[in-house]
Amino acid sequence: MIAFKRILVPVDFSEASKKAITYGLTLADQFNSKLILAHIVPESSALAYAFPTETFDMEKEQVEKAQSAIKDLVPPEYAARQHIQEIVRTGNIEAELLAIVQNEGADLVVMGTHGRRRLGRWFLGSVTEHMLRKVPVPVLTVSHVDTEKHQVGMVSLKRILYATDLSEYSNAGLKYAVEIARAAGASLSVMHAIHYPDRRLWAAGGIPGLESERAADVQEMRKRLADVLAQEAPQEMQVEMLVVEGRPSEKILEIAGERAMDIIVLNLQSKSTLERTLIGITAERVVRLAPIPVLSVPPAGKR
After folding, report:
1. What is residue 114's three-state secondary structure?
2. Which end of the chain is more exposed for a tag (fewer CB within 10 A), N or C?
3. How far, in Å, CA of 144 to CA of 114, rounded?
4. DSSP code for 199
């Protein structure tokens, strides 16, 4: 059974990270997890050689301010019922966060993204991008629009969407989707998109036998989805199965919007044990463009 025993939320005191804390707090409450809030003060190595004393004093002051501010991020009414640990360090942000994941045994990382409206949403931020590629545990990216103000609290999770490509790693993400739905008492929808990349080249008058072939594809994918669900989903859980036709990233976002989903769960592809140099076209588009949180799950064998 999947369990989030330790949830790490990197914070930079922005509205985006406050929104991430809300989701981390909600999942920690549902799974009875330890919530770890971590702030990294960037090292000032470039100035240290010329002004070593001033640099040390400046970093020390930033650390002290962060240690004070991080304790006030979670309202007292929520902090009193949660096991919360605060960590403030100085150094390279990515390296320190990866070290915390390993040393603290984090099972989940929740990160706020700083994307803006329209084209700006394509910017995730280098730290989030690198964490997605390197962290060996699932990462929940929480979208944010800069003009919003966010009050840390709890959020309702009622509808979970799991998007699968039915690859050899597809069961990994489904396990997390099932457990989150179970813990939150949420409904679960599982979808697969059939994509014909050369559709624009089809003859105008149609291709003989194509419709029956497409219908057979849908039937085959529904059978494969049912087989996967039979292995991973509890018999008592009602799961909606969706097989649609279209570009996967577009259909995932479309269905999530139409059905007012609260979280999207999907799998990450991997080229190596040490680093996912390619996240995967579908996952990358969904993570960047989704207006709701996306849980990206690495292959089970890479954890």
Report:
1. coil
2. N
3. 6
4. G
Same domain? 109 vs 17: yes
Q: Whole-angstrom Cα distance, residue 22 to residue 296?
A: 18
Nearest-CA neighbor of 11 among 142, 134, 192? 142
Closest C-alpha to 26, from 110, 87, 128: 110
> Would you put residue 91 in left (φ > 0), alpha (ψ -120 to 50) or beta?
left
- Give the pairing type, strands 83-91 and 34-42: parallel
Q: Please tell me the pTM assigned to this model.
A: 0.85
Largest CA distance in the chain: 78
269 and 182 part of one domain: yes
Tell me how far apart the alpha carbons of residues 262 and 256 are, in angstroms, rounded to a whole number: 8
CATH of the domain at 250: 3.40.50.620
Show the domain range for 204: 156-303
What's the CA gap between 226 and 192, in Å, rounded?
Answer: 11
- 258/239 Cα distance (integer angstroms): 17
Mean pLDDT value of segment 53-71: 81
Phi, psi of 26, rounded to the nearest 5 degrees: -65, -45
Over residues 199-216, the pLDDT tens digits come to 554 555 555 556 777 788
**45's tokens:** 């190595």
Single residue among 128, 155, 182 that ends a domain in this structure: 155
